[in-house]
Amino acid sequence: MLDTLDLQLLHALQLDGRAPFSKIAEVLDVSDRTVARRYGRLRGSGVVRVTGTLDSHRAGHAEWLLRLRVHPRHTGAVAGALARRPDTAWVSVLSSGAEIVCLVRVPAGGPAPLEALARHPQILDVTSQRLLRHLMDHRWLGRTSALTAEQITALRPPDTSDIATVTLTDLDRRLFPALAADGRAAYPHLAREAGWSESAVRRRLNELRRSRLLQLDVEVDPTLFGFSVQCLLWLTVTPSRLTAVTHTLAADPETAFVGAITGQHNLIAIVICRDSETLYTHLTDRVSTLPGVERTETALITSYTKRVAPP
């Protein structure tokens, strides 16, 4: 479990994944060394990682949710192969042990890679749904509730939404893999990985952040916060009630992600609960009673094979 300082540090990094430890330490009223040591311990134990990914919407990329049915004895191998693909953002294994769900990002107008996956000998069936829009403007409240309003204001980067659109360059294509591995990587390391000068990398990284093409996030296991159950929800909602249902779900503390999708369902959500009893109560007393919700399908997430800033 995490203590109060750990929770504050993770909330601070969620606000700005590359915030200097000195700035975080000043806001939290502790020493720089304490903050650096805490992050080093969390990072070194493998339970926390800051990631830097391309904002698909701003880059004009399409996102596809792929649902694959596989031979149970080959689930690990298939999930691992998907995780190694550069176009997958995250890969999860569901509780049945024979189903995998992953998010794939492709250039705008490009199709989901169904043909290649359908030929895989261990994949029995694959379906796709286009993720049309992310419908939450905040992160899961379970990991972003440790700071005061004043501390949040002090740590939040300035709003730069008026910055002109930035076109991706060859340097960006070299930087993003390194940032996906470590969003807090130092400039000398990024320069070595990209094969460019440190000054060019520093300048370009600042441009990517101002344009919001670079999306920094914190990967952390929810069990560290005392939440042991994660669940995928596919919802069929009456179109006229879609906005109301979305706003209600997004405000729930259990909700980590809500998105609009194509297919027989029109919403997908990820909820995180303390235990199975809490999940049952949330589904029966909350989700199923929302006006407009016609059908719900649920699947427990047992593991993530790849988690590059999942919601």
CATH arch. level architecture of the domain at 226-303:
2-Layer Sandwich
Rounded to an integer, what's the Rg over CA atoms? 20 Å
Structure classification: alpha+beta
Q: Calculate the mean pLDDT score and round it.
A: 90
In percent terms, what proportion of residues is strand? 25-35%
Q: Give the N-terminus to C-terminus distance in angstroms.
A: 21 Å
Regions with little confidence, pLDDT below 50 for 5+ residues: none
Domain HTH asnC-type: 2-62
Protein name: Regulatory protein AsnC
Keywords: DNA-binding, Transcription, Transcription regulation
InterPro entries: AsnC-type_HTH_dom (IPR000485), Dimeric_a/b-barrel (IPR011008), Tscrpt_reg_AsnC-like (IPR019888), Tscrpt_reg_AsnC/Lrp_C (IPR019887), WH-like_DNA-bd_sf (IPR036388), WH_DNA-bd_sf (IPR036390)
Task: Please describe the topology of this protein.
Layout: H1 4-15, H2 21-28, H3 32-44, E1 48-54, H4 56-59, E2 61-70, H5 75-83, E3 88-94, E4 99-107, H6 114-118, E5 123-134, H7 149-155, H8 170-181, H9 187-194, H10 198-211, E6 214-220, E7 229-237, H11 242-251, E8 255-261, E9 267-273, H12 276-285, E10 293-307
Antiparallel strand pairs: 1-6, 2-4, 2-5, 3-4, 3-10, 5-8, 7-9, 7-10, 8-9
Characterization of this structure:
The protein has 311 residues and is of the alpha+beta class. It has a domain of 78 residues: Lrp/AsnC effector binding domain/regulation of amino acid metabolism (RAM) domain (Alpha-Beta Plaits). A hairpin with a 4-residue loop joins strand 3 and strand 4. Helix 8 packs across helix 9 and helix 9 crosses helix 10.
